[in-house]
C-alpha cells in the first residue's frame, strides 16, 4: 500500500478537513509550523497531513479546528518511534498513523512511555497492522473521515488515550517532583527553588532551540559540563547567566548566585541532572530524554510553569 492509497482508504483525500503539510500557506492549524519543523529535522520521515475536527460551527468559527489524526510515512521502525516522540512533544494530536514498509502503526499522540531498560522500545503502539488491505481497512475503520466527523472515533478509541501521559502533564509532574526534592534535601526557600527550576527551563529551551550552541559557549570559555551535567556548579551557572544577560540585555528568572541565599552546588547538580534526563523519583538515568523543547509550544511551556507556580501559591509558598 502506498501513502496516497492509505489517505484514500481513510477517506481523507476528498475532504477539506484533511490539511496536507505541503500546503505551506495554511494557518488554520495550531502547531502547523512545528510539524514543518519536525519534517525539516527528520529527513527519513514524511508527514503527509493532519485531519482536523471543527470545534465550532462552520458559519461561526470562534475556536480553531483541532488536530485529531496525523498521517505520516517512514522507512524504519526506529524512525517511527522517533517521529512519535517529536509529535508527542507538540502534544496536540490524539492519534498518529504511520505507514511503514511492513505495515501500518497507530500511536497515541498523548502517550509516550519509555522503557528505561531498552532505549529503542516503547510500549504505546495502539495497533501494528500487517500490510494487507483488508486488515488495514478493518483496524482503521474508527479513524476514517466519517468516524471522526460523527464522533465515533471517541466512542471506540477515546478510552485508549492516557491524558496523564501528555507532555504538559508529564513535564508539570517532573517540575513538582524536582521542587519537592530541592525542598527536602536542601531546605531552599520557595523563591530560590522556583527561580532555579525556571532558569533551567529557560536554558534547556535555548539549548534545544539551537540558540545556546557549543560554538557560542566556547567563545565565552564556558564548559557545557559545568551547567548541563552532574558536574554542574554554581560558578559555571553564574558564568553562563552573566553571558546570557549581556547577550540579550536583560534578566529571565532572576536568581542570586552569589549571596547567602544562593543555591549550593549540590542543588544545582540535582536540577542539571533532572533536565539532562534523570528520573528524579527513582534516581535512575533515562537512556534518552523524551523531552525536546524545540517542539513543545512556547505557550504550553509558559502555561506549565505558571501552573507550577500556582500550585505553590495555593500552598502559601508566597
Describe what you observe in this structure.
With 318 residues, the chain is an alpha+beta fold. The chain has two domains: 3-165, no CATH class; 167-314. 45% of the residues lie in helices and 14% in strands. The chain contains 13 helices and eight strands. It has helices at 3-9, 32-41, 77-90, 133-139, 145-150, 152-157, 167-186, 190-208, 214-219, 225-228, 234-248, 265-275, 298-314; strands spanning 18-20, 45-53, 66-74, 95-100, 103-108, 125-130, 278-279, 284-285. The strands form two sheets. The chain has a six-stranded mixed β-sheet with strand order 1-2-3-4-5-6, with helices on both faces. It has a two-stranded antiparallel sheet with strand order 7-8. Strand 3, helix 3 and strand 4 form a beta-alpha-beta unit. The longest helix is centred in the middle third of the chain and has 20 residues, at 167-186. It is elongated, with a radius of gyration of 22 Å. The chain starts with a helix and ends with a helix.
Amino acid at each position: 500500500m502506498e501513502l496516497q492509497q492509505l489517505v484514500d482508504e481513510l477517506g481523507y483525500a476528498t475532504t477539506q478537513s484533511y490539511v496536507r503539510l505541503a500546503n505551506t500557506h495554511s494557518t488554520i492549524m495550531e502547531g502547523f509550523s512545528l510539524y514543518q519543523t519536525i519534517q525539516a529535522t527528520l529527513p527519513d520521515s514524511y508527514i503527509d497531513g493532519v485531519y482536523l475536527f471543527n470545534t465550532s460551527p462552520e458559519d461561526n468559527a470562534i475556536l480553531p479546528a483541532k488536530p485529531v489524526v496525523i498521517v505520516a510515512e517512514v522507512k524504519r521502525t526506529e524512525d517511527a518511534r522517533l517521529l512519535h516522540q517529536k509529535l508527542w512533544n507538540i502534544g496536540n494530536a490524539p492519534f498518529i498513523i504511520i505507514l511503514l514498509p511492513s505495515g501500518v502503526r497507530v500511536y497515541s499522540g498523548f502517550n509516550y512511555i519509555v522503557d528505561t531498560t531498552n532505549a529503542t522500545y516503547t510500549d504505546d503502539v495502539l495497533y501494528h497492522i500487517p500490510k494487507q488491505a483488508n486488515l488495514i481497512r478493518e483496524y482503521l475503520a474508527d479513524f476514517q473521515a466519517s468516524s471522526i466527523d460523527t464522533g465515533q472515533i471517541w466512542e471506540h478509541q477515546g478510552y485508549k488515550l492516557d491524558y496523564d501521559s501528555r507532555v504538559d502533564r508529564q513535564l508539570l509532574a517532573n517540575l513538582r517532583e524536582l521542587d519537592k526534592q530541592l525542598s527536602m534535601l536542601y531546605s531552599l526557600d520557595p523563591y530560590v527553588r522556583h527561580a532555579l527550576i525556571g532558569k533551567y527551563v529557560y536554558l534547556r529551551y535555548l539549548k534545544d532551540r539551537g540558540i545556546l550552541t557549543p560554538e557560542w559557549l566556547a567563545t565565552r570559555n564556558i564548559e557545557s559540563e559545568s551547567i548541563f551535567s552532574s558536574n554542574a556548579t554554581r560558578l559555571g551557572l553564574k558564568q553562563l547567566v552573566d553571558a546570557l544577560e549581556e547577550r540579550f540585555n536583560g534578566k529571565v528568572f532572576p536568581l542570586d548566585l552569589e549571596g547567602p541565599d544562593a543555591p549550593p552546588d549540590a542543588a544545582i547538580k540535582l536540577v542539571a541532572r533532572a533536565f539532562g534526563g534523570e528520573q528524579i523519583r527513582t534516581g535512575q538515568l533515562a537512556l534518552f530524554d523524551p523531552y525536546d523543547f524545540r517542539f513543545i509550544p512556547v505557550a504550553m511551556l509558559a502555561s506549565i510553569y505558571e501552573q507550577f507556580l500556582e500550585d505553590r501559591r495555593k500552598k502559601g509558598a508566597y
